[in-house]
Design a protein that fits this description.
It is a single chain. With 194 residues, this protein is α/β, with parallel strands linked by helices. Helix content is 17%, strand content 39%. The protein has 4 helices and 10 strands. Strands 3-2-5-6 form a 4-stranded antiparallel beta sheet, with no helix packed on it. The longest helix is centred in the middle third of the chain and has 10 residues. It starts with 9 loop residues before the first strand and ends in a 9-residue tail after the last helix.
């Protein structure tokens, strides 16, 4: 799942492989979060067979949480029977809505937080491109570029680094968009030029 929030289901996918000498039949595979079982399924595998699986569970608390997937009652070599993951469940989703002053930026921010409540789960902050470039981008979980123009020369490498560090970017062009400027930085994200 991409956006994880407390009280909403998360789907985790994994693969289970039987590298032993015997087939396994009807073994339990469990997902644990904070050492508490939150989901389980049963799986059967022939010798050498690998199967993908998906399980849903609902994190109840915000924060970084350690979890793992474990094959229960497996073999004598327990080291390969579980794999760990870290789940980041934010208290709030902080989004920078970047664009020139006007309806594209303002209506996008309003759609993300209709009540304009600073304590809502989605906290949308409207910024001009110059204001955004002066900010600490790590304080935002995602960026929405809403008909944004006027970025500096270092914007594309900084945005690429932001995305490579697990953050999200949503790009909406509009009537003010300078296609040549977008053409300079969209390909650095692996997106096609306009």
């Amino acid at each position: 799942s991409r956006i994880i929030t407390p009280g909403r289901p998360v789907e985790i996918s994994f693969a289970v492989k039987n590298s032993g000498r015997d087939a396994i039949s009807d073994h339990i595979v469990s997902v644990y979060l904070a050492d508490r079982r939150v989901a389980q399924t049963r799986i059967s595998l022939a010798v050498g067979e690998s199967k993908p699986a998906r399980l849903k569970f609902t994190p109840q608390e915000p924060g970084d949480q350690v979890g793992y997937v474990r094959l229960e009652d497996a073999d004598d070599f327990a080291a390969d029977d579980q794999r760990y993951f870290v789940l980041r469940v934010p208290t709030r989703l902080r989004i920078a809505v970047v664009g020139s002053e006007g309806p594209a930026r303002d209506l996008t921010a309003l759609a993300l937080n209709p009540a304009d409540d600073p304590e809502a789960f989605v906290n949308a902050r409207s910024l001009t491109p110059a204001q955004f470039e002066a900010e600490d981008w790590n304080s935002f979980d995602a960026v929405v570029l809403a008909d944004a123009v006027g970025f500096s020369g270092g914007f594309s490498s900084r945005l690429r680094s932001y995305v490579e560090n697990g953050k999200g970017v949503f790009v909406m062009m509009g009537p003010q968009a300078d296609l040549r400027a977008y053409d300079a930085w969209l390909p650095t994200l692996g997106l096609p030029a306009p």
